Amino acid sequence: MFGLDCSGLPDGNYELGCKSYGVCTGGAVKLVNCDPGQVYDDNSGSCADPSSVTGICSQRRDCSNKADGLYADTENHCKTYYTCYNGEFKGHNFCSKVTVFDEVQQTCNWPGAVDPPCGTKGQATTSATG
């Protein structure tokens, strides 16, 4: 549920994205959504004003000349992406730890299936032989 499995995790707050987090208590998870205009602050474990938060969640993107859609955060190695709608920045989203954002497919995908700069599709690979 919510992309967070609390079984085996210590009690506490865990980031699910810039706009929400999960609270693990005794192996159970509860979803908490940030209020409009706030983002999750990993340092405090709660929602805060973006100006007081460090990291990707504090960074706004210029969507004024972009079509509606999802765009890779290339400076974050495409582990995150952001939404533009009606010329406005709507926030960041996160891919899982093993995937990157694929702008063509508009979803998170395996790096080997995604064109550079986000993925490695079409690039030669080398292997050690011994």
Q: Which terms would index this structure?
A:
3-stranded antiparallel beta sheet, 2 domains, Chitin-bd_dom, 0% helix, Antimicrobial Protein, Tachycitin, Chain A, Chitin-bd_dom_sf, single chain, 130 residues, 10 strands
Describe the structure.
The structure is a single chain. This protein is an all-beta fold and 130 residues long. It has 2 domains: 1-50, no CATH class; 61-120, Antimicrobial Protein, Tachycitin, Chain A (Beta Complex). Helix content is 0%, strand content 36%. The protein is built from no helices and 10 strands. It has strands spanning 12-17, 20-25, 28-33, 39-41, 46-48, 69-72, 80-85, 88-94, 100-102, 107-109. A 3-stranded antiparallel β-sheet has the order 1-2-3, with no helix packed on it. Residues 3-59, 60-120 form the Chitin-binding type-2 domain. Pfam families: CBM_14 (PF01607).
Task: Give the gist of this structure.
With 130 residues, this protein is mostly beta strands.
Poorly predicted residue ranges: none
Quickly name the level 1 CATH class of the largest domain.
Mainly Beta
Helix content: under 10%
Which structural class matches the secondary elements?
A: mainly beta
Beta-strand content bin: 35-45%
Shape: globular
- The span between the termini is 44 Å
Number of domains: 2
Topology as H/E string?
Answer: EEEEEEEEEE
**CATH third-tier fold name of the largest domain:** Antimicrobial Protein, Tachycitin, Chain A
CATH architecture identity of the largest domain: Beta Complex
Number of E strands:
10
Number of helices: 0
Radius of gyration: 17 Å
**What's the mean pLDDT score?**
90
Q: How would you sum up the major sheet? A: 3 strands, antiparallel
